[in-house]
From TrEMBL:
Residues 96-177 form the Peptidoglycan binding domain. Pfam families: Glyco_hydro_108 (PF05838), PG_binding_3 (PF09374). Residues 8-90 form the TtsA-like Glycoside hydrolase family domain. It comes from Sphingopyxis macrogoltabida (Sphingomonas macrogoltabidus). This is Peptidoglycan binding protein.
Length: 182
C-alpha cells in the first residue's frame, strides 16, 4: 500500500531515539515527538517507542485526519509531498501550501475559483485539484510537487533566519526533505 511505503521511508529517515538540544520538539523517536506520543496514549519511555506505534500515529495524524488520503486518490506524488511536509511543519501548513499553489496556477480564476487558504483539505480544495489536473493533465503533477518543495524550502530558510539555533537542522532538511518524492 502506498501509505505504508511512505511511512516506512519517513521512519527510516527519522531513525530511532534522539534528543538534540536545539530541537524545540524535544525527545523524539522515529520522528514522533514526546508530546505527540503522549497525546496519542503512549506512556512508555520515548527510547522504547515501538515502530508500529509510530506508524499508526503517522497514518492517523498525518495522512487520514488531514485528508491527504483523498489527495492521493487524485495526485499521489502531491499527497506524498504533503505527508512529508505535514510531519515536519504541520498538516495545516502542508494543506495551505497546496491551496496557495493551486491559487497561483489557476490563471486568475479562469480554470477554477481561488481557494480561501484555510489550511484544510476539503471539498473545494479537492475540486480545485481535480480542475487543475483536468486542465493541465497528469503530467502537471510534478509541477505541483516542485512548487510545494519551493514553499517548504523557503520556510526552512526563514525559520533559520528567525531562530539561528535552527541552523543546526537546515542542511538535513534541505538534503532529506526536498526533491525526494518520486
Amino acid at each position: 500500500m502506498f501509505i505504508d511505503r511512505l511511512i516506512d521511508e519517513v521512519i527510516d529517515r527519522e531513525g530511532p531515539y534522539v534528543n538534540h538540544p536545539a530541537d524545540r520538539g524535544g525527545p523524539t523517536c522515529w520522528g514522533i515527538t514526546e508530546a505527540v506520543a503522549r497525546e496519542n496514549n503512549y506512556s512508555g519511555p520515548m527510547k522504547a517507542l515501538p515502530r508500529s506505534v509510530a506508524a499508526a500515529i503517522y497514518r492517523r495524524l498525518y495522512w487520514t485526519r488531514p485528508g491527504f488520503d483523498k489527495v492521493a486518490e487524485r495526485a499521489p506524488l502531491v499527497a506524498a509531498e504533503m505527508f512529508d511536509t505535514g510531519i515536519n511543519m504541520g498538516t495545516g501548513v502542508a494543506a495551505g501550501f497546496l491551496q496557495r499553489v493551486l491559487n497561483a496556477l489557476n490563471r486568475q480564476g479562469r480554470d477554477y475559483p481561488d481557494l480561501i487558504v484555510d489550511n484544510a483539505i476539503g471539498a473545494r480544495s479537492l475540486a480545485a485539484l481535480d480542475a487543475f489536473l483536468k486542465v493541465r493533465g497528469r503530467a502537471a503533477e510534478p509541477v505541483l510537487v516542485r512548487a510545494l518543495d519551493a514553499l517548504q524550502g523557503e520556510r526552512y530558510l526563514a525559520l533559520a533566519e528567525r531562530r539561528p539555533s535552527q541552523e543546526a537542522f537546515v542542511y538535513g532538511w534541505l538534503a532529506n526533505r526536498l526533491g525526494n518524492v518520486k
